[in-house]
Amino acid sequence: MRRVDWSRLDAAARAAALQRPALVPDAERREAVAAIMADVRARGDAAVREYTKRFDGCDPELLVPAAELDAAWNGADAGVRAALSSAAARIEAFHRAQAPAPVAVETSPGVLCERRWVPLDAVGLYAPGGSAPLVSTVLMVGIPARLAGCPVRVLATPPGRDGRIDARLLAAAKLAGVTLVVRAGGAQAIAALACGTASIPKADKLFGPGNAWVAEAKRQAADAPDGAAIDLPAGPSEVLVIADDSADACFVASDLLAQCEHGADSQAILATPSAAFADKVEAEVEQRLKGLPRETIARASLSNGLVAVVRSLDEALELSEAYAPEHLILQTREDERLAARVRRAGAVFVGPWSPEAAGDYACGPNHVLPTGGAARAWGGLGLESFLRPLTFQRLTRAGLRAVAPDVEALARVEGLDAHRLSVTARSA
Q: Which residues does the annotation mark as catalytic?
């Protein structure tokens, strides 16, 4: 991890220090994804299978039979089933509480305005797989889609070299209520969900995190006239920890490493007013790295990491607000004061007993969060992400006559005579 004395940096140097490697433009990736999207749009299932063979080294049947989902759940280890069930219950409880209430307001006599929420018809859910099957992501995207009442809930996840999907991930899909599972990952899976194929329903909206290729495919899908909306910009994962010398260096190091093992393009940042504490954390990180099953990946990620020695906790929070992290962890003497001031973060973990990993798996809030600085404008997934609002307006004759003068006057301002006349014809 690089170390900087934050207080000594000018604005340009600070911006450079916080540069995310995943945000470096990659024209070659952009063009490659565009070619994959066009090919899948043109050739459908055949193209998806060819890319799966090329990138994943296997040529499986695209759709997972329902019986295989049942077998995966019934055959899962009892401890895994118990953990999945407990996590699912908390996720469901938190998301069920988010159900938005309909609104009905008479804005003036005879003018009734309503807003109702309806489920999306078809949603495409993506869960990274391969060497680290993210069963938690299946729960995080599948459960709110089911609670929202989306009739079509299609999950795409990459198969292993043997052409199979990890049975534990399939068990999570069964528990979450996914209606169809597709053995495909990467840009080709996003293309199939966005465009539809002979066997894969076209989705109205795409959900779930992924690597830089998946993120690029989602962006292109959202831009295409025949594509699909997307949940949020969700690319390589990231964490920022604000800690002072009251924190446990072991806890902080563990939180940083938990993020780094996601992928080589993940980013971990520590902001602390104590250089001595930073030394302790770095020593703990090095000690705990050794022997990790994903040590090579974590080390590569740490090369993107940053230790910023700041003047104060307030300056640390200013750094965080500039970075707008996906995950923000607070381990200081002033956690609640800082937490009350946070405005730009995907999710905030307050205090020494609130590790990000707990939220990733089992607390209840969604772990699909904005990355790459998108937390300046976006929030994480919630139940409303799988719903869309509709407004209704009902006017009586008297109600229309009351608003007619305003409509006619404003239509004249805008030069839209047909608008004005459509009201005049009724209110005469």
A: 326-327
